[in-house]
Amino acid sequence: MKPWLHRVPLTVAFTALALVYVVLAALLAAWLTSQGFSPWGAAAIGAAAVVLPLALHVQRAFAPMHSLFRALAGTVASYRDGDYAFSLAWEAKGELGELVDSHNRLGAALREQRLALVQRELLLDTMVQNTPVAMLLVDPSRRIVHGNLAARRMLGDGRRLEGRAFDALLDEAAAPLREAFERGGDGMFSVGDADDEEIYHLSRRQFRLNGRPHELVLLRQLTTELRRQEVQTWKKVIRVISHELNNSLAPIASLAHSGAELLRRGQHEKLPMALATIEERARHLEGFIRDYARFAKLPSPRLQPVAWAQFLAQLRSQVEFRCELAPDDGIVRVDAAQFEQGLLNLVKNAHESGSPASGVAVHVRRVVAGWRIDVLDRGPGMNEAVLAQALLPFYSTKRHGTGLGLALAREIAEAHGGRIALLNRADGGLCVSITLPD
């Protein structure tokens, strides 16, 4: 049984107890005075008789609360250390009971949160360890904080990488990987020869962890994915070439047979029409093959300073368009022949979009650290699905299109260190935008 004192409010209990002892002290002092003690001596003895028992009662009454407070302090220290595996028992009600209940509810909530956090950490660790992407976390001192299983297989022969110097690990890695890191940023590189080549993509991200800069390194093997895409691309190329060849060779064979019949019958007046059609289809096939060869054999650009005014004048001699140039004395470093071919394709596409000739324009203007070239038309524009695929090789919405015009322009722009983008104009039409660096 716990002391009765904690079963009632402390103020009431101690007030009643104090009154009892005061009455007893007064009675004791009166009796001592009647026995011949001086009033002061009797009062002192009475006070001592009150204080000592009262102190013992107070100590006994507060002992459970002292134990409770010590237990509360201990649990708070345990919570601070991450230990939530216990709770407190207190039978009494009142303020202390509410305090204990609140403390136990806090511990239960912390236990649930800790369990959920542990489960999430286990799930995250399982995902990180089993992903095929090699992941390395490097601290400010260039030491590896964490490396998953893929990183161990790729860079450590299956051994743990934590604690190793990252730069020393790079020194032991393949030369293409070291070169990729020396170039900085993200990029692709290949390891091995042509018969046993593996292609990887390197990503590097900087962030702060606990107030300190860290680097996350991701190495993803792309060989299988690229080969699968390569197979799909070749299948599409074969379908496009087969379709185009059949479209030209079938009428050529038919007209050749018809021409032979006309000769046999002596109907020579119809031969020129048949031969003209054969010539037209043959020239179309020749142009088709030439476009493919040009796309496949595009050499590295030979950059030279070119005056924009002269370049655009040369382009306008081949195809009609409105021109805006700012500033009009600008100089750009490009391979003039390649870049002319790329812009020529874009301007011809603008004319073939159904735009009136007066609606086709080329705007060239200076931007920060480079140039922006916009080829504009007033055609119907493109829907979202076409915009997403229009720059891919062999994709075309034209009945007899090869799907190489925009792809070739993109190849030329990127070979010059630039980029190309397509967007619909707010007031109708399409804008093909190329940005080039200085």
Keywords for this structure?
438 residues; alpha+beta; Beta-Lactamase; 4 domains; 5-stranded antiparallel β-sheet; 5-stranded mixed β-sheet; 12 helices; elongated; disordered N terminus
Could you explain the architecture of this structure?
- Mean pLDDT is 78; it is low at 1-7.
- The chain has 4 domains: 4-112, no CATH class; 131-221, PAS domain (Beta-Lactamase, 2-Layer Sandwich), CATH 3.30.450.20; 226-296, Helix Hairpins (Orthogonal Bundle), CATH 1.10.287; 304-437, Heat Shock Protein 90 (2-Layer Sandwich).
- β9 (361-367) and β10 (370-376) form a beta hairpin.
- α1 packs antiparallel against α2 (39-80), α7 (223-265) runs antiparallel to α8 (271-296) and α10 packs antiparallel against α12 (405-415).
- It contains 12 helices and 12 strands.
- The chain is of the alpha+beta class and 438 residues long.
- It has a 5-stranded antiparallel sheet.
- H/E element order: HHHEEHHHEEEHHEHEEHEEHHEE
Give the second-level CATH assignment, the architecture of the largest domain.
2-Layer Sandwich
Give the CATH class of the largest domain: Alpha Beta
Give Rg in angstroms: 44 Å
Order of neighbouring strands in the sheet with most strands: 2-1-5-4-3
Structural class: alpha+beta
Write the layout of secondary structure elements.
Layout: H1 10-34, H2 39-80, H3 94-130, E1 134-138, E2 144-147, H4 149-155, H5 166-172, H6 175-183, E3 187-191, E4 198-209, E5 212-221, H7 223-265, H8 271-296, E6 304-307, H9 308-316, E7 322-326, E8 331-334, H10 336-352, E9 361-367, E10 370-376, H11 384-389, H12 405-415, E11 419-424, E12 430-437
Parallel strand pairs: 7-9
Antiparallel strand pairs: 1-2, 1-5, 3-4, 4-5, 6-8, 9-10, 10-12, 11-12
Helix pairs in contact: 1-2, 7-8, 10-12
Membrane topology: Multi-pass membrane protein
GO biological process, one term: osmosensory signaling via phosphorelay pathway
GO molecular function: ATP binding; phosphorelay response regulator activity; phosphorelay sensor kinase activity; protein kinase activator activity
